[in-house]
Amino acid sequence: MAFGPFLLLALMEGLVTAAVLALAAAGLSLVFGVMRVVNVAHGEFYMLGAVLAWAVTTMIPGPPALAFLAAVLIAPLLVAALAAAADGLILKRLNYDPEATIVATIGLLYILQQAALSLYGPNAYPVTAPFEWRIQLPWFGYSGYKLFVVLAAELVLLGLWLFMTRTRAGLIMRATQVDRSTAQAFGVNVDRVYMGTFALGAGLAALAGVLIVPIQQAQYLMGHDPLLLSFIVVIIGGLGSLRGTLIAALVIGLSDGVISMFFTPTLAKILATLLVAMVLVFRPQGLFGARA
Amino acid sequence: MTGGGVKVWVLHLTLIAALFAAQFLLSPYHATNLARIMVLAVFAMGYNLAFGYTGLLSLGHALLLAAGMYAAGLPAQLWGWTAGPAFIAGIAGGGLVAAALGLLALRTAGVSFMIVTLMFAQAGFLTLLYFAPITGGDDGFAVAAASRTLMGFDLSTDTPRFLAALTIFAIGLCASLALVRSPFGRTMVAMRENEERSRMLGMNPFTVKLAALTISGLYAGAAGAAYAILFGYVGASFATIQYSILPMLYVLLGGAGTTLGPFLGALLMFALIEAATGITTAHQFIVGAALVVLVLFAPKGILGTIRERWARWLS
Q1: What residue of A is the nearest CA neighbor of B280?
Q2: With A191 labelled, which of A231, A273, B61, B231 sits at a CA distance of 20 to 30 A?
Q3: What is the pTM of this model?
């Protein structure tokens, strides 16, 4: 294959990564933005989405498209419910203290990962894509499902943006983000906002997991890389800003696609982690928002 | 934390004497486990000096453990260094990496500090994988028997290994007790309690925290080097996030900011997992549940609670 088509393929693969990453990172960014909680278990919600998608599609008979549609609806809802329970049982009791919540979500990460290992097993299982459709380009054929993933992620993110900017619930969430106690003084039920935000963030991660599972099999350790990448995206993009998260996801996703074509993935990951650490060290103000 | 000097020293020396006696009472299997616990407790003691006393919640201590392990293991592997020089190299490696980490990461605080240390440790782990031809990557390598002798004693056999682990543990424990009771120890606590106020009193928070993190690195390096020499294995798995979480778990369980907490936490956690092995293989679940329960219901840990309620003289 000539260089041009090769680069095009790399960019298209990068676009798929970027789309899924943007969904997961938007959830992480939302939770940090509104609640100031760094959710280390975020990658496990992504993994649970994929594993539950496998469970739902194997349990529901019928055409793959129908089973997959059921998975898209059921898996994120279940994960969101689990996250809401974790918020009520653990995070709320810690009063959302930043350091204590990190320790608690590390614990949650271990618990969820072990639960997946014990109940689902160590093997990876595939999920059939809802449709088999290939786009024939002059140089190579490309999976139509992958383009569907990009489109679906864009629609969900657009919906999230409309929800945050145009609805009353979004307004309340943004008000809580800006000033928790003033919002409370104005009669906002902050506890419910936090629970809803945590559930929404987890649901977005789970949806990303459901969308990726026909491309990449479901496995209990699959949450690690998305967690790391979501952190990178959220830190580079600046927290609380959905737009920054999207731009960063696009940049990171595309460059990940291109870099992994030319360098070994390990070297790419080393450079990315070091870059993020350096950004946090030398430009913390622009990236963690205006934190006092 | 003031007063009770004699009582505290007697308590610590009694523990060391009890551990010395334990080797005669325990089966070789349990004695080896206890040696392992003591080495891990040295690592946790270092973590405690940074987290428990200075308030630096690091998620990257695996990097320091691995630094000590490879600084001891690689010269032994490549140039046939013996246990003594390799151990010293390991301590120095841990300290140097900690100082470098501190120079960068201590420009941040709180949550940013946690993420920065996590990222640097992750980069360190990936670097070990990247240079797998030298480091052995995930598989690691066995340390040659010739490098595991110290002054004619073969450290791969039970009794010398136990005594070496006990010596390192005892020195580490006494040094940390002396440190936290010294004026510098008070300064460390001042950083944890109120950095702004200590700055107004004329202290320099950055240098104090850098020194505390470096000392913590010396401990981690010593533990990593001791692990490589005493148990004969060096591998990248010790640089994973799991080995950053473990010392935090030990310290939280035993009691952050107590000198005996790290050992107690390591001992209890080891015993808990050992006891649970018969019932379930879900070790990660135990670790995860322990973290959640501790942070929810006992944030001060066992000794922290005892000190608060009954024994104010504990240090």
Answers
A1: A118
A2: A231
A3: 0.84
- Radius of gyration over every alpha carbon of chain B, rounded to an integer in angstroms: 19
Task: Locate B281 and state its tokens.
Answer: 């293989």
Contact across the interface for B284 and A269, Cβ inside 8 Å: no
Domain assignment of residue B315, yes or no: no
Whether B14 is in a domain gets the answer yes
Q: pLDDT tens digits for B3-20?
A: 568 888 888 888 988 888
For A269, counting Cβ atoms within 10 Å of its Cβ (0-12 exposed, 13-18 middle, 19+ buried), the class is: buried
Give per-residue pLDDT as tens, B94-120. Answer: 999 999 999 999 988 877 888 889 889
As for how many domains chain B has, the answer is 1
* Contact at CB, A280 and B115, closer than 8 angstroms: yes
Domain, as residue range, for B65:
5-309
Residue A269 in contact with partner chain B when CB distance is under 8 A: yes
**Measured between CA atoms, how close is B108 to chain A, in angstroms?**
6
Q: Which residues of B271-280 are buried (b: 16+ CB within 10 A; e: fewer)?
A: eeeeeeeeee
CATH number of the structural domain spanning residue B19: 1.10.3470
Residue whose token pair is 């608690």: A104
In the block, tokens 């994973």 appear at B240
Torsion angles phi and psi, residue A136, rounded to 5: -95, 105
Return the residue of B nearest to A263 by Cα. B130
Nearest CA of chain B to the CA of A280: how many Å? 7
ipTM of the complex, rounded to two decimals: 0.81
- Residue A232 and residue A276 in contact, taking contact as beta carbons nearer than 8 Å: yes
> B20 in a domain, yes or no?
yes
- Is residue B271 over pLDDT 60? yes
Whether residues B285 and A115 touch (CB distance < 8 A) is answered with yes
| Domain assignment of residue B314, yes or no | no
In the predicted structure, residue B70 carries a pLDDT above the cut 90: yes
pLDDT at B186 over 50: yes
DSSP-derived 3-state class of residue B194: coil
Q: What is the mean pLDDT of residues A246-268?
A: 79
Q: Which of B302, B295, B102, B116 is nearest to A102 (CA)?
A: B295
Q: How confident is the model at residue B1 (pLDDT cuts 50, 70, 90)?
A: very low
Neighbour tally for B305: CB within 10 Å: 14
Q: Report chain A's mean pLDDT, rounded to a whole number.
A: 86
Say yes or no: A125 contacts chain B, CB-CB below 8 A.
no
Say which of A104, A235, A266 has its CB closest to residue B126: A266
Q: What is the model's pLDDT at position B3?
A: 57
Cβ <8 Å between B248 and A103: yes
CA distance B68 to B64: 6
pLDDT at residue A77 greater than cutoff 90: yes
